[in-house]
Amino acid sequence: MILWVNNMKITVLTENISNSNKFGAEHGLSLYVETTKHNILFDMGQSAVFAQNALSAGIDLSCVDFAVLSHGHYDHGGGMKHFLQLNHTAPVYVSKNAFGDYFNASFKYIGLDKELSKSSRLISVDGEKTIAEGITLFSCNEKPRPNDKGSFGLSELIGDKYIPDKFLHEQYLLIEENGKKILISGCSHKGILDIVSWFKPDILVGGFHYSKIEDNKELEDAAKILNSYNTTYYTCHCTGIRQYELMKKFISKLNYISCGDIINIK
């Protein structure tokens, strides 16, 4: 499937599902972003699947100018070691909190390989970071979250105590080209409603983190709020297929992207 938007080409390298036997799938996310001046890798899935799919798509990851890790979970950064081996020059921008001790609701470790934190290729980001003209990373950790849904059982180990994860390790990539604001989010753990209200992007690409929400009324209400913005949404991964299908009824510009899909520029 090819989806057309303005000023940027995004290829889905890793996502939960694939609509073609040409591309593998896994629980995770990786996007290859081509702006008018830069090649960007946003997240690296949980394994080397993203790289295998890049080959299938004719993408040379050695040409990536820089990579961005959205947050410190294995399904977004598990392929980082493989990327560092494929590409010998590109810096990887990670949150200063990316290598914390993060766990799921069953207290299984879901963080990153801590050995990777020693790599000289990693650039630690604290808050806001301009990478290039029109390309900026934001953590928004200081922003209020009136629509916060909590941690859904995800936690961080601080000392000997598990506390609900506040997702201070999550960051968002904003690309501004030709008058358009394109926001890329990994899982939107801080809350998709608040994230959209902060940035009011023309285009948002990423997960909504709604796959654990079963209440139809809650999903409908959220969808109506998202629809009130003049934003085109390309969602995936942690949104949930059932949740997407329900919200699609109330969001006029909502699309689902899978492995191998392209949001193309022309």
> What is the 3D shape?
globular
Order of helices and strands: EEEEHEHHEEEEEEEEEHEHEHEE
Largest sheet: 8 strands, mixed
Radius of gyration: 17 Å
DSSP summary, beta strand count? 18
Mean pLDDT: 95
Distance between the termini: 15 Å
Binned strand content: 25-35%
List the total number of helices.
6
Annotated CATH topology: Metallo-beta-lactamase, Chain A
The CATH architecture can be named as 4-Layer Sandwich
Total separate domains: 1
> What structural class do the secondary elements suggest?
alpha/beta
Question: Which residues form runs of ≥5 with pLDDT under 50?
Answer: none
CATH superfamily: Ribonuclease Z/Hydroxyacylglutathione hydrolase-like
Any idea of the CATH class?
Answer: Alpha Beta
Question: Strands, helices and their partners?
Answer:
Layout: E1 2-5, E2 9-14, E3 30-34, E4 39-42, H1 49-56, E5 66-68, H2 74-77, H3 80-86, E6 92-95, E7 102-103, E8 122-125, E9 128-132, E10 135-138, E11 155-158, E12 161-164, E13 172-177, E14 180-185, H4 192-199, E15 203-206, H5 216-227, E16 232-235, H6 241-248, E17 254-256, E18 262-265
Parallel strand pairs: 1-18, 4-5, 5-6, 6-8, 14-15, 15-16, 16-17
Antiparallel strand pairs: 2-3, 2-18, 3-4, 7-11, 9-10, 10-13, 11-12, 13-14
